[in-house]
Amino acid sequence: MRRWFPPRLLAAIIGLVTSNAHASPEDVIGFGPRATAMGGTGAAAALGYEAVYANPALLSLEHRRTLTLGFVGAAFDLHAQDRASYGPLHGSIIGATLPVPFGGSLKDRITIGLGFFTPLDLVVRGRILYPEKPQFPIADRTQSVAVQAGIGVDLSHGIRIGGGFAALAALAGSVLVATDASGRIGTVVEDTLVASYGPVVGASYEFGDAYRVGATFRGALVGRFNVVITVKDLGDIVVPPLNISGIAQYDPWQIALEFARFKKPWRFAIGGTFKHWSAYPGPAEATVRCPTVDPDTGQPFTDICSALVPQAPHYHDTVVARAGVERTFDPLPSVEMRARGGVFFEPTPAPAQTGESNLYDNSRVALSAGYGVSLGPKGLRIDLDLFQQLQILVPREHKKGKAGPVIETRGFILAAGTTVGVTF
After folding, report:
1. What residue ranges define each of the domains in the chain, with the CATH number in brackets?
2. How many other β-carbons are positioned within 10 Å of the β-carbon of residue 24?
3. C-alpha closest to that of 391 among 374, 368, 419
4. What is the pLDDT of residues 101-124, one digit of tens each?
5. What phi, psi does 155 have (nearest 5°)?
6. pTM
7. Cis bond leading into 265, ω under 30°?
8. Please, what's the b/e burial string for 252-281 (b: 16 or more CB within 10 A of its CB; e: otherwise)?
């Protein structure tokens, strides 16, 4: 390796492998202080910019321009016998809504929304480690930029629809190793960020004067990278193309269904989210792959080729149960206060790690609480919101083989955040 792969090449490969794609940390923690404090609900109860993720149809409830800035942090205390080392999350939130100023029958019916989450100390983090190394992929899933946009339309008669997208970047690149005219080994590194999108569509229906049902579909978000290393002109040494590739971030496609009461002073929501984890192919892909065409003749290979392929993770689909409540108080005409609480249970999609693989994951019980206050008249209002969330990883045992040790995994995730917004 030292002879044929100089340090500059190794540094380039390491840089490419660790420069992974964006994904949505809101799938782990939540998006927005109100929705997060209410147990991650929102398909029938979201308000303001938070509806971009929860249900774009509910953007049409906002008839004024809003701009929100905030901060979110999270700490991870995860154990697989010993404590796993994961740094804290520090990120910023930006949210905005913009009603489309149509007149006539379209007045106050269409609203555009934007939502961003950005870690403060990085763009994205994703690690593809040896599968036998103890690790909790859930911690890395929160360390990435999340970008969303949507539009909501009020069709009247209690029916609202909306759509949008979540965006992330994927990495494609190449490394060429070859000798130059002087006989020295050189490298050429090229990498490109390419966009990847997942649709978000939703609908809601209001009945009576206080109740609503909502449904949201979110497409899969796949943060894939693929860097191909090609080695040429090294004399008698023949090196097949090496694919440094895998999936650094992954959110499965999911469907959220929810029932909510939206009338003050008591608001509540209860629902579930189906997540199609069985389609998850695993974090690693084959490094050396069988060619399908003979490079010399251009003809398809007829011989059976056997390549080392990473073991499938065998994830299964899950259903997440959620519930949240909010109580509003109006001590003064220009002051509104809100107390919130919520809970959700998310079963793990991962099987017990009984073989060499140590990609640990646990079912999680989350308890959340929050507070909000609005100051000022309706024309110019200042909103302050905060939340705290404790996720408890249900202890789990992984027996390694018939005579191997029993590994217990457990831990906590503690998240908190606050936002300040203005409505004008």
Report:
1. 7-423 (2.40.160.60)
2. 25
3. 368
4. 998 889 999 999 999 988 887 666
5. -90, 0
6. 0.84
7. yes
8. bbbebebbbbbeeeebbbbbbbbbbbeebe
